Here is the input.
Amino acid sequence: MKAVVQRVKRTRLTVDGELISEIPFGLTVFFGVKVGDEEKSAAYLAKKIAALRIFEDENGKMNLSVKDVGGEVLFVSQFTLYGDASHGNRPSFTLAERPERANELYEYAAKELALQGVIVKKGVFGADMKIEQLNDGPVTILLEAE
Here is the structure.
C-alpha cells in the first residue's frame, strides 16, 4: 500500500465539471492499493498521515501535523501508484489490487483517517477526476506499508 502525501494551500476535485470535493488547506493524499494488501496496512497509513509533522511551527520548523494546524485531507484513490514501467514505456498495472477490493480498502482507510480527528474529503473511486491544487513548499512525502 502506498500513499503520496502533498502539503497544499488548496485543492479542488471535479468529475465531469461538477465540484465533488474541496479543501482550503492541508493534505492531498493519493492512495494506492497493491494485490494482497490488508486492513492493518490501511490503518497504519491513516495514523501515519494524520500524525505526519510536515507543517511549520512558529519557528518555521516542520513540526506540526495536519491535525495540529486544523487542516483537511483530500483522499484520492489512485491505482496508477502501482504502475510498473520497468519493461518498456507502457506501464503494467498487474500489481494494483482489483477494483472491488481496492475500493473496500480505500473506504476503510478514509474512515480510519477520520477516526484520527481529521476532516476527510474524498474523490470518486474509479472516476475520471480532475484535480487542481496549489502545492505548499512543495512538500511531497511517499509512505508505504507492507
